[in-house]
Amino acid sequence: xxxxxxxxxxxxxxxxxxxxxxxxxxxxxxxxxxxxxxxxxxxxxxxxxxxxxxxxxxxxxxxxxxxxxxxxxxxxxxxxxxxxxxxxxxxxxxxxxxxxxxxxxxxxxxxxxxxxxxxxxxxxxxxxxxxxxxxxxxxxxxxxxxxxxxxxxxxxxxxxxxxxxxxxxxxxxxxxxxxxxxxxxxxxxxxxxxxxxxxxxxxxxxxxxxxxxxxxxxxxxxxxxxxxxxxxxxxxxxxxxxxxxxxxxxxxxxxxxxxxxxxxxxxxxxxxxxxxxxxxxxxxxxxxxxxxxxxxxxxxxxxxxxxxxxxxxxxxxxxxxxxxxxxxxxxxxxxxxxxxxxxxxxxxxxxxxxxxxxxxxxxxxxxxxxxx
Length: 372
Hints:
- The structure is a single chain.
- This protein is mainly alpha-helical and about 375 residues long.
- It contains 13 helices and 2 strands.
- The protein has a two-stranded antiparallel sheet with strand order 1-2.
- It is elongated, with a radius of gyration of 35 Å.
């Protein structure tokens, strides 16, 4: 068992070292891959403009997303989607633009900097593993991460509904523009499957986040396990409540894949050595602190700059004492230099006064001798 653990730790250690050395190139590759997948799926389902279907154009835009920050992946994907829809159905383009604008305002007001997750959820739906996103967002995100998950669910089912009804939306004689817009609003608000998935995914994200933050051993791994079981069970219950017979495809396979994806991420992000847990207590002028410190799991003999909490606290106190002594020494030296300067100025003044007095005495004697 110990040999297996050391093998996994060795793999983890070398992967993290390689990533630390080539993180810039790895991030570019990941952003390029996500952007390429998103743009390719948009072209597959909404082939509106022929020049945007060319592979060289898709690769070029994806490479541009790779060298830009993560938020530009969602920005370019949204622009690409709107351009393709505008060539197919103006009503669908306008409606999607309004929905994207509302989602963007909600996300950037409540949870800035999570554009990649918004693109990742529709892609994971197409890969049949959407259950991984609530677990990953709950494990790595903040308490408001469910907003991004809800936005991704709404976006996926909105695009799915538009794709299914493209013949109606692209037929100029089927209905007027107002009728098509009302049709889109009605279909979106009346989509009970979307509502069931949205509730299940949002609650799963909150459950995973809250459990992963508990101060208990292996809380991230427990959160992943509970989220993996909780999400499909809650979704099945909601589908039965809405009298629906069909939800996301491959629910069992998607849940199993989500479990292993979550474990893999936690292995690199929050894999701790609970046998070395320490509890430290200290105080300052205003608070009393109770600290629980859990070291990260490392290879035997692996060099680390980590110090035990008590030693770190003593070192910090020693540094503060040394800094105070150094400050006192500088202040004393400054006072000494000031006193020495004042003494030298006083001595110079006395010397000058004696010199002037001797000069006056010599002059008076000279005058007396001249008078005699």
